[in-house]
Design goal:
two-stranded antiparallel sheet, seven-stranded mixed beta sheet, disordered N terminus, about 325 residues, alpha/beta
C-alpha cells in the first residue's frame, strides 16, 4: 500500500513510535515531536508500481479552440500546470502508476512522454451521434442554460465523449492491475486540466494517503461535494472532476457511458442529467447517502493535513462553474 509512516507503526506504543521516528530522522528531537505530533505524516514512497497507488487521467489533453454550447469561441486549458502539480504532489511522493486515455491532438505525444504512463491510449476523435440520437430534445443548445445536462447535439456529443474517455481509462486500469498481478488500493481519478488548491490557503505540497482509512473503506468512493450555486441546483452534488477510491470505484464510474441512455429514459434534462448527477448514479451515491466519504478522509496534504479544493485551469475567456 501507499501509506504514511504512522500507519505502518499503528500497533506500536506511543514511546515506540516516537523512538522509531527519531531513529529514522523523521523528527530530530523530542521538541520537534511535540510540534509535529498533530501533523499528517509524510507518506512512505516505494518504487513505482509497488506502492499500490494509481492515477487515472481522462479527457482532452492538448489545448484546442472550440465552440461552446452558446456559440462562443473558447480555448481549453493546457495540461502542463496540472502535470506539474500531480507529478510533484501525488505521482512522485507516492510512487503512483499512471494510466490515461486521451484524444489525439498536437501535444498528445508530449503528454505521454511527460507522464510516462504504465498504460495509455490516444484515440482519434469519435462522433457519438448514433449513440445519443434518440436522446436529442433540441438540435441547438439553449445559450441561457449553462448545463452539461442539456439534451442538445453539442452537449450530448461532449458528454458521451467525456464518459467514453473515462470508460477507456478504467478499462486500461483493469488491464494494468491484471499485468501487475494485484489491484491498486487507492486510485485518484481526474482530468488533464484539474487544479488542486488547499483549504488552508497555502501553496500546494506533497499529498499523503491515509492507508488505514482506505482499508476500512473497502470499495467506498472518496469524493468532493459542490454546493448549489445556480437556480436549478436542488442540492449539493458530486464534483465529477476528481474522485478516488479502489479500482472497483473507478470501474463503477466507467460504467456510466453505457448507462447514459437509461439515465435519460425518464426524460431527464438539466441538472438531473448533468455529468455530476450521472456520475452519482454510476457510483450509487448522493450527498445524502452514507456509502461515500469525503475526499479529505483519505487524501490530504502531508505536512499540514489540509484538504484539497478541486478546481480547473481555464483559459481567460472561459466560464467556470459549469455543471
Amino acid at each position: 500500500l501507499c501509506m504514511s509512516g504512522s500507519d505502518l507503526m499503528s500497533d506500536q506504543s506511543p514511546a515506540a513510535m516516537l523512538q522509531w521516528c527519531l531513529d529514522n530522522n523523521i523528527i530530530s528531537d523530542v521538541n520537534d515531536a511535540r510540534n509535529d505530533i498533530r501533523k499528517v505524516p509524510a507518506p512512505v514512497a516505494g518504487p513505482a508500481g509497488a506502492s499500490g497507488c494509481a492515477l487515472v487521467l481522462r479527457g482532452i489533453s492538448s489545448p484546442r479552440e472550440y465552440e461552446r454550447f452558446d456559440g462562443r469561441k473558447a480555448r481549453s486549458a493546457g495540461w502542463r500546470a496540472t502535470y506539474s502539480e500531480l507529478k510533484a504532489w501525488y505521482i512522485d511522493p507516492l510512487g503512483a502508476d499512471v494510466v490515461l486515455h486521451t484524444w489525439t491532438g498536437p501535444e498528445a505525444d508530449e503528454v505521454i512522454a511527460a507522464y510516462a504512463p504504465a498504460a495509455h491510449s490516444v484515440e482519434p476523435a469519435r462522433n457519438f451521434g448514433a449513440a445519443y440520437a434518440a436522446l436529442i430534445v433540441r438540435g441547438v443548445c439553449d445559450p441561457s442554460v449553462i448545463s452539461t445536462g442539456q439534451r442538445c447535439t453539442r452537449v450530448l456529443q461532449n458528454k458521451f465523449s467525456a464518459f467514453w474517455s473515462l470508460r477507456e481509462a478504467v478499462r486500461l486500469l483493469g488491464e494494468q492491475e491484471a499485468a501487475r498481478g494485484a489491484p491498486y488500493a487507492f486510485v485518484l481519478n481526474t482530468r488533464f486540466d484539474v487544479r488542486l488548491r488547499f483549504d488552508d490557503g497555502r501553496p500546494g505540497g506533497p499529498l499523503a494517503v491515509d492507508a488505514g482509512e482506505v482499508r476500512r473503506s473497502g470499495d467506498r468512493a472518496f469524493v468532493a461535494w459542490k454546493q448549489p450555486s445556480m437556480a436549478d441546483h436542488s442540492r449539493p452534488f458530486l464534483d465529477d472532476k476528481l474522485f478516488a477510491g479502489s479500482g472497483a470505484v473507478s470501474r463503477r464510474a466507467g460504467a456510466a457511458f453505457d448507462a447514459l441512455p437509461s439515465f435519460a429514459a425518464a426524460g431527464e434534462e438539466g441538472f438531473t442529467f448533468s455529468n455530476h448527477v450521472n456520475l452519482e448514479r454510476a457510483l450509487g451515491v448522493t450527498a445524502a447517502t452514507s456509502e461515500v466519504s469525503p475526499l479529505c478522509a483519505a487524501l490530504r496534504r502531508a505536512d499540514t493535513g489540509a484538504c484539497i479544493i478541486v478546481d480547473l485551469y481555464r483559459d481567460d475567456g472561459a466560464v467556470t462553474g459549469q455543471h
